[in-house]
Amino acid sequence: MLLSIEQRLAQELSAKPAQVAAAIALMDEGATVPFIARYRKEATGGLDDAQLRLLEDRLGYLRELEERRKAIVASIEEQGKMTPELLKAIILAEDKTRLKDLYLPYKPSSVALRRKSL
Q1: What are φ and ψ of residue 72, in 5° steps?
Q2: CA-CA to 108 of 20 to 30 Å: which in 1, 31, 43, 44?
Q3: Please, what sign has the CA dihedral across residues 83, 61, 94, 45?
């Protein structure tokens, strides 16, 4: 199984999961990277500005990846074409490109959509 978003970020940043969780909580509350780096160092265990910027970027990417993963699973299940092997591959996909490649054969084509609407 894939690691949670917090675990992945902690591994990528060489930080403790508690540091990452604290930084994510602050960001979710609306705190900016400069604010966290300057005024909330104690909460994040001393994560520096560069680490926090990377965390912010990767957090956004990984959250988008999870949303896309859910949408793809729902779409393929709706078509009745989901297999255990395909589900496992989708769950283990680590980037958007891999997800896109897995979904391509199941993606409704625009031609088929236009025909249905006529």
Answers
A1: -65, -45
A2: 1
A3: negative
